[in-house]
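tool_call predict_complex ligand=adenosine-5'-triphosphate
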Amino acid sequence: MNVQIILNILVIVESLLLLVISITLFRKTSDFKKLKKYEEALIMFQANQNDVIPMLVHELRAPLSVVKGASDLLLKSTDEMNADQVRDLLAQIKSSSEGLLKMVGDILDVSKMEGGKFQISKVFGSLGGLLKEECAYFESLARVKEVSLSCATGENIPEFSFDPERVKQVMSNLLSNAIKFTPKGGSVEVIARHVDRIVEVVVEDTGIGVPEKDQPKLFHKFFQAGNQGGVTQKGTGLGLVITKGIVEAHGGKIWYEDNKPKGAKFIFALPLK
Ligand SMILES: Nc1ncnc2c1ncn2[C@@H]1O[C@H](COP(=O)(O)OP(=O)(O)OP(=O)(O)O)[C@@H](O)[C@H]1O
Ligand SMILES: [Mg+2]
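tool_result ok
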């Protein structure tokens, strides 16, 4: 992937996000010609680049269109809207910008990993506490999807040094996948155990699982299995690459196993020292 092109896209996206922030604060000074210009630049990228770049740009365009549509409406018709309608549009802008920021962050992380510049910053702390917090955070998403989420986070895990923000990112990627690919009525379980000088964390689900032929490609950039189990909210296919990069930066390992009788099981191991 051409890092320069990616950085150019990031600059465009960042500028658009700044524009969104000013719109959400109702500073009606935004220059929409500028937005048009950025859009045209994105279309040009889409037309000219190789397979990966158009795909990324396509992913970026969907949330950007929501941001543009919602902010257009807000600027034109605020006076005719009630507070709920305004709040709805602002919520759409917020959620689309969060999606964009995640995508931009993911692209930057992968670029750093590929360029050997990815760094973690370890602090001494409790992994069990972090796992509990992440499970609590995902509880509402699981409830909305009618998937049960349970956490056995191992009270006896000793404190050790790890990068809490990055390990949260690992858990967030694994838990969001597990919930995303598990249909209604299924379950997701997080188990942490302490084996010798290693802590193992298992995230298992009873969802669609990964067919054997796709398993070797799971940690490849942009890989998404053919069967997405009817999931409409598609991601970028970078989550597991970043997850693996973070685990390996800690000197650890991550792998996939089938969950019996069905579903997926991701296990990562971090060294205590
Ligand atoms: N728990 C799971 N059950 C079934 N398939 C999974 C699971 N986790 C990952 N996969 C498969 O691996 C693919 C890659 O996962 P990854 O997290 O890298 O990307 P994504 O979730 O599609 O997008 P992103 O995480 O970048 O938003 C998924 O699209 C899916 O096909
Ligand atoms: Mg994912």
